[in-house]
Amino acid sequence: MIIFWKIGEITDMDLFDIVGPIMVGPSSSHTAGAVRMGYVAGKLLGEPIQKAEILLYGSFLATGEGHGTRKAIVAGLLGMQTDDYQIADSFEIAAQRGMEVAFGEARLEEAHPNTAVICLNGISGKQTEVQISSIGGSRISIDKIDGINTGFSGECPTLIVHNIDQPGCIVAVTSMLAKKNVNIATMQVYRSAKGQQAVMVVECDQLIPEDGIVWLAGVEGVQKVTYFPGLTA
Amino acid sequence: MGYRYMTAGYHTLRELQEQAVLQNREVWEIVRNADMSENERSAEASFEKMTIMYQAMKQADESYNGALRSASGRAGGDGAKLQQYNAQGKNICGDFIGKVMEKAIKMGESNACMRRIVAAPTAGSCGVLPAVLLSYEEDFSATQEDLVKALYVAAGIGTVIAENASLAGASGGCQAEIGSASAMAAGALASLQGGDAETIMHAAALALKNMLGLVCDPVAGLVEVPCIKRNSCGAVNAVTSAQLALAGIRSAIAPDDVIDSMRRTGNQLPACLKETSEGGLAVTESARVYQRHSNKRRIEK
């Protein structure tokens, strides 16, 4: 039986995000969710961060200070989890590690009230800009990567493939996953224009083996492969 | 997000209840089974994870420190006052309710003081569920296993609310946080007392109805005022709602309709009453004094 279900706000939530996570207070959306936002952004960059510019929007901007939101995002960028007592000391730890952190205001239209735009520069010069929102409890939604709409939760292994819009790229991804016995949970495909820049966001039920990702990066037409193993991995 | 298809699980309280009845299972089993199939966990792994959540709640309760103060310097110590008051035998609410109130305030204060807690469903509402469950374990003859099963019931109710409404103060107001926590705790308590699936759903509905329209108006943008004390209110509301349902009283509004109206009410609330600190208690003269105090303290630090 297949049911098409109209959702309220979130789908595919983990039961242990409803009762859980175990976290350091005071706010699940503004502290724990913010830690996760930084964590995902850092993983999406894929290398140690040299400079982070964090732009806050809506309620994050208005009430973030008292909730430790800024400290929490930086803690996540440093790789901390939601129950880490060092969240409160994240600014000092970032300074010790030579990570430059700056904050500002994000000017967005029609974004979720708890949104941040995180711009990262890595030590080898890699850059990424991620727009993420904290959508309730400690759940998050990765809304945009480098200006392209995405909209995934980060709760399961996720593959983000930047490619040229040409035949063969989608089948390369799906056949690799099939060979590795990885099931696709959701798949979103976007392109800027016919034959131009395209992006695939593939959420999976199992972890993707590293050799599969390396292989994919070498496929003709594929420009960049980003893999996020999931928040609980 | 738009439409997405699902092939397993429950999406309404009615479905949760019907599955329990049709499969001749307890509600907690339906919730656990859905977790097993959706997240590929074994029954043991799922139960162990939930047990860890319960034990973390217990640790948080036991490690309460009445001497701690929050970032603003204003929150903390009230749990110790309640403990002292209860110990003096002056309790006018009865031992169980007295204990529930005490534990709820303690947990809310621990959260404000950046201690480790279990969000259930959120950090701001983290006191409601453990207050009811931990007090029950202490005062009634229940095993830890029983309590973990009750946590599943709570999680199942929370899942349905998340799917059909919201658990975030920023999008639904406090009804989505303390209200949801209260509904979850009411259902959990009804199940601990042997209530059937229908009784559990109505306990949750009765609790949520009492919280409809509650706004999120944190003073100085902090999870302190009025959040901490609302945990105590939500916990007591859960106990009374469970008792009403266990006595056979039913919500005239179907449980899923209550959740729908919570979503609608949340959408109709203006932004100033949804965690922006631009309305409600947050814009009173007392709130300005509180804010000044907390700003001053931050500068001094």
The main pleated sheet of chain B reads as: none
Please tell me what the overall shape of chain B is.
globular
State the distance separating the first and last CA atoms of chain B.
43 Å
Say how many strands of chain A there are. 12
The share of residues in extended strands of chain B comes to under 5%
CATH architecture of the largest domain in chain A: 2-Layer Sandwich
Poorly predicted runs of 5 or more residues of chain A: 1-11
Q: Helical content of chain B, roughly?
A: 55-70%
Strands of the widest sheet of chain A, in order across it, are 4-3-5-6-7-8
Number of domains of chain B: 1
Assembly form of the protein: heterodimer
Defining key terms:
heterodimer; A: 233 residues; alpha+beta; 60s Ribosomal Protein L30, Chain: A; Alpha-Beta Plaits; 2 domains; six-stranded mixed β-sheet; four-stranded antiparallel β-sheet; 29% helix; globular; disordered N terminus; B: 301 residues; mainly alpha; 2 strands; 2% strand
Commentary on this structure:
The complex is a heterodimer of chains A (233) and B (301). Chain A is built from seven helices and twelve strands. Chain A is α+β, with helices and mostly antiparallel strands and 233 residues long. Chain A has two domains: 23-146, D-3-phosphoglycerate dehydrogenase, domain 3 (60s Ribosomal Protein L30, Chain: A, 2-Layer Sandwich), CATH 3.30.1330.90; 158-228, ACT domain (Alpha-Beta Plaits, 2-Layer Sandwich), CATH 3.30.70.260. A six-stranded mixed sheet of chain A has the order 4-3-5-6-7-8. A four-stranded antiparallel sheet of chain A has the order 10-11-9-12, sandwiched between helices. The longest helix of chain A is centred in the N-terminal third of the chain and has 18 residues, at 28-45. Chain A is globular. The two termini of chain A are 31 Å apart. By secondary structure, chain B is mainly α. Classes of the chains: A alpha+beta (233), B mainly alpha (301). At the A-B interface, strand 1, helix 1, strand 2, helix 2 and helix 3 of A face strand 1, helix 2, helix 3, helix 5 and strand 2 of B. Strand 2 of chain A pairs antiparallel with strand 2 of chain B, so a sheet runs across the interface. Chain A: Belongs to the iron-sulfur dependent L-serine dehydratase family. Chain A: Pathway: Carbohydrate biosynthesis; gluconeogenesis. Chain A: It catalyses: L-serine = pyruvate + NH4(+). Chain A: Residues 158-230 form the ACT domain.
